[in-house]
């Protein structure tokens, strides 16, 4: 009876109170007579279809519903275009800017005007603009925190020369261009000073965050070019935003002399932030530097400083974005403190709010205004001036301070990246009425072209720069080389152990590769991410006495980067973890997997070729690893960890003659361990194959009493504990997966090898 007490209590309480609520409604109904007689009659009129149409029609066009639909559409479109542009080697921001233009009047508004007017009615744009501005404020706050001022101090000399040359040269050229553009393209009631100053700043900006991502994705973080470029971009950002604040003050004041008061107020504001607020925040960071001590009150103080700083700069007249940027710069320099704050802000800003800014910019970009050859010629001239000023100025300055021509060209190409920062400047100019819609469209195109050309320019430079191989490099290529690619540091530690077993001898060379999605990393915490990612791997390699090389990269496409590293690195084996299939374990997952596979050309080709199936089975291997198996040009080892510790026994199921290559790896493992090898003649082919028998005999001679041959019926799963590992081919894995018996053994780790 005791076990039913809870059920009985639940039924009595819920049932009793539901009955009470029903009785209250019935008693209260007579009260409606004098209150809702007319409304009730109207509510009862019309068909169900009309009532549904009226109700949903009102709900769908409600301003809040429109805003949510806009956000959903913008995020999906931005992520889609970002993914597509990543595939062609371009930064995500390029795809997101193009996504904004796609949603604007240039494409969606032109081809689907009715849908465009429904999705982006003019009355809703103010809401979108305010949300996008909040996203920009958070983004600039993060950018300020990502600036490492210590680097600027240690490398200030060359960086400031290159940075300031990369600003002054395009600034002067931009002002010169404004002299020829003013009469035709400047808005009415805007003086020449305001127009020329904004054209200059628009030509001279560098996108620090985009440049940092490009450097990370190309593995240039520790190179001389990468370090100098990052430092120059940081100095460029600080200088350009100070200049922009002065320019905004001049434009709002109407003349240079009347803007002096605004600039003086801004100087006082900056001094207060640096001399009073910053020391307080430094003390705060020393006390609250980890997640355990960082309370909600401390976070509230941080965001309070951010918001008050933004508000103050807006009231002074130098734009709220400058205040957000400065608030980020003066945050406590302690790494752990800044990392926590960045992690709390960055994803919301980058994924949710920043795409709204791209969409809003796209709604303003009317490429259709460039409707004649004259307009397009002017646009091309603007692009050429921008490239000559920024690329040429940076390149010549870098060469002057002692860089090689190759490095100088690379620095020039990187500093020519404009991206998001350019859009911010252009939108400020548009809001202030300094730029007409036509000039705004031209400058957006210039921002896209100059950012787009960075990657191809670096590729072209690398293609024509030939580096001679050293003797050491030639010796390394003669070794048995293993590439380990891992996501989780602890799984990387175990794969080092497996690589040690497969290395065969001390002449082998092991490379550990860890790639972080570039959206998950920023310049500020990249070094800490790298250190933490490789700590367990290096510790295990030291314990085993291994010669190990570590490679860390950030990439827009992690799988493609891993494949590229494997295929171009002259390795003998790539070792990866199995992961887990995204489409495993639920009906919805399998349905999504089937749809994704049907739209995947490579999957269709492999299905028709009999190498794979469209319908996913309950597989232990995820889709990313399958791509490695099919697309890698070198042997691939997939490790399925089942609480693997030390190796005492190896089981090798043999299904076809081609599985003989597995004995090559068994022999290497026997060199490095005391393990016993059990070969399972699964299909009964070994007895009739002389080559197989000869290879087994060679192993017995090399390592006596270390190998045994059994048949399928002799397998006893309990004989393979957690200290065992099964090594099998890809075809063998597919055969065993259909049976499930050995694959499902929770104690038996698996090494799947595709030759």
Give structural notes.
By secondary structure, the protein is of the alpha/beta class. Helix content is 64%, strand content 8%. It has 4 domains: 2-45; 76-116 and 133-462, Up-down Bundle (Na+/H+ antiporter like fold), CATH 1.20.1530; 582-618, no CATH class; 642-754, 3-Layer(aba) Sandwich (Rossmann fold), CATH 3.40.50.12370. The chain is built from 32 helices and 10 strands. The protein has a 10-stranded mixed β-sheet, sandwiched between helices. The longest helix is centred in the N-terminal third of the chain and has 30 residues, at 156-185.
Q: What can be said about this structure in brief?
A:
The chain has 755 residues and is α/β, with parallel strands linked by helices.
What does the secondary structure layout of this molecule look like, with pairings?
Blueprint: H1 5-28, H2 37-43, H3 48-60, H4 63-87, H5 92-103, H6 108-111, H7 113-119, H8 125-146, H9 149-154, H10 156-185, H11 192-204, H12 208-217, H13 224-253, H14 260-287, H15 296-316, H16 320-329, H17 335-364, H18 373-400, H19 405-415, H20 419-431, H21 437-452, H22 454-463, H23 471-478, E1 481-485, H24 489-503, E2 509-517, H25 526-544, E3 548-555, H26 558-568, E4 573-577, H27 587-598, H28 601-608, H29 623-631, E5 636-640, E6 649-654, H30 662-672, E7 676-681, H31 690-702, E8 707-711, E9 724-729, H32 730-739, E10 749-754
Parallel strand pairs: 1-2, 1-4, 2-3, 4-5, 6-7, 6-9, 7-8, 9-10
Antiparallel strand pairs: 5-10
Helix pairs in contact: 4-5, 4-17, 5-17, 8-16, 8-17, 10-11, 10-13, 10-18, 11-13, 11-20, 12-13, 13-14, 13-19, 14-15, 15-16, 18-19, 18-21, 19-22, 20-21, 24-25, 24-30
């Amino acid at each position: 009876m005791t076990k039913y007490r809870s059920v009985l209590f639940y039924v009595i309480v819920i049932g009793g109170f539901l009955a009470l609520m029903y009785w209250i409604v019935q008693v209260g109904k007579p009260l409606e007579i004098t209150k809702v007689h007319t409304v009730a009659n109207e509510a009862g009129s019309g068909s169900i279809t009309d009532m549904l149409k009226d109700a949903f029609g009102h709900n769908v066009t409600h301003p809040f519903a429109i805003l949510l639909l806009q956000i959903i559409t913008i995020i999906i479109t931005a992520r889609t275009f970002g993914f597509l542009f990543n595939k062609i080697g371009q930064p995500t921001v390029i795809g997101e800017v193009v996504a904004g233009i796609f949603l604007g009047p240039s494409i969606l508004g032109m081809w689907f005007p009715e849908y465009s007017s429904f999705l982006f009615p003019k009355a809703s744009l103010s809401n979108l603009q305010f949300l996008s501005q909040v996203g920009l404020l958070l983004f600039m706050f993060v950018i300020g925190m990502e600036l490492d001022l210590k680097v600027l101090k240690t490398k200030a000399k060359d960086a400031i020369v290159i940075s300031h040359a990369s600003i002054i040269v395009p600034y002067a050229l931009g002002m010169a261009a404004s002299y020829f553009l003013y009469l035709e393209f400047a808005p009415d009631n805007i003086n020449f000073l305001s127009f020329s100053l904004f054209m200059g700043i628009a030509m001279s900006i560098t996108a620090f965050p985009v440049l940092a991502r490009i450097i990370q994705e190309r593995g240039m973080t520790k190179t001389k070019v990468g370090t100098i470029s990052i430092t120059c971009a940081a100095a460029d950002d600080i200088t350009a935003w100070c200049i922009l604040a002065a320019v905004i003050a001049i434009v709002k004041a109407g003349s240079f002399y009347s803007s002096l008061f605004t600039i003086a107020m801004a100087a006082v504001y900056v001094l207060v932030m640096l001399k009073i607020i910053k020391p307080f925040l430094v003390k705060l960071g020393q006390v609250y530097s980890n997640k355990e001590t960082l309370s909600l009150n401390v976070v509230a103080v941080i965001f309070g400083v951010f918001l008050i700083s933004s508000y103050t700069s807006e009231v002074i007249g130098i734009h709220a974005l400058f205040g957000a940027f400065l608030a980020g710069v003066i945050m406590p320099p302690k790494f752990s403190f800044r990392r926590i704050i960045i992690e709390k802000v960055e994803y919301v800003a980058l994924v949710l709010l920043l795409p709204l800014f791209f969409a809003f910019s796209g709604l303003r970009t009317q490429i259709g205004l460039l409707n004649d050859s004259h307009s397009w010629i002017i646009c091309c001239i603007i692009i050429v001036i921008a490239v000559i000023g920024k690329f040429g100025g940076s390149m010549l300055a870098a060469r002057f301070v002692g860089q090689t021509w190759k490095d100088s060209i690379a620095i020039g190409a990187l500093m020519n990246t404009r991206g998001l920062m350019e859009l911010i400047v252009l939108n400020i100019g548009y809001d202030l009425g300094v730029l007409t819609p036509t000039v705004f469209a031209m400058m957006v195109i210039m921002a896209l072209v100059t950012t787009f050309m960075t990657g191809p320019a670096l590729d072209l430079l690398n293609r024509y720069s030939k580096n001679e191989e050293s003797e050491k490099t030639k010796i390394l290529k003669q070794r048995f080389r293993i590439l380990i690619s891992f996501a989780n540091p602890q799984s990387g530690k175990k794969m080092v152990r497996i690589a040690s077993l497969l290395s065969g001898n001390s002449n082998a060379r092991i490379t550990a590769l860890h790639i972080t999605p570039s959206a998950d990393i920023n310049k500020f915490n990249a070094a800490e991410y790298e250190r933490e990612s490789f700590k367990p791997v290096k510790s295990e390699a030291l314990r085993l006495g291994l010669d190990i090389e570590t490679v860390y990269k950030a990439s827009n496409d992690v799988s493609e980067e891993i494949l590229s590293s494997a295929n171009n690195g002259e390795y003998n084996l790539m070792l990866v973890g199995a992961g887990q299939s995204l489409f495993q374990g639920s009906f919805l997952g399998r349905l999504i997997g089937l749809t994704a596979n049907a739209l995947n050309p490579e999957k269709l080709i492999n299905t028709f070729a009999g190498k794979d199936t469209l319908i996913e089975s309950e597989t232990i291997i995820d889709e990313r690893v399958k791509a490695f198996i099919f697309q890698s040009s070198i042997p691939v080892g997939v490790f399925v960890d089942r609480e693997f510790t030390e190796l005492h026994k190896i089981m090798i199921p043999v299904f076809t003659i081609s599985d003989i290559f597995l004995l090559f790896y068994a022999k290497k493992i026997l060199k490095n361990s005391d393990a016993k090898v059990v070969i399972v003649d699964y299909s009964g082919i070994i007895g009739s194959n002389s080559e197989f028998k000869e290879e087994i005999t060679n192993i017995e001679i090399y390592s006596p009493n270390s190998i045994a041959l059994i048949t399928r019926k002799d397998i006893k799963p309990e004989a393979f504990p957690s200290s065992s590992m099964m090594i099998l081919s890809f075809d063998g894995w597919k055969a065993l997966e259909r049976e499930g018996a050995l694959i499902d053994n929770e104690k038996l780790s698996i090494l799947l090898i595709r030759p």
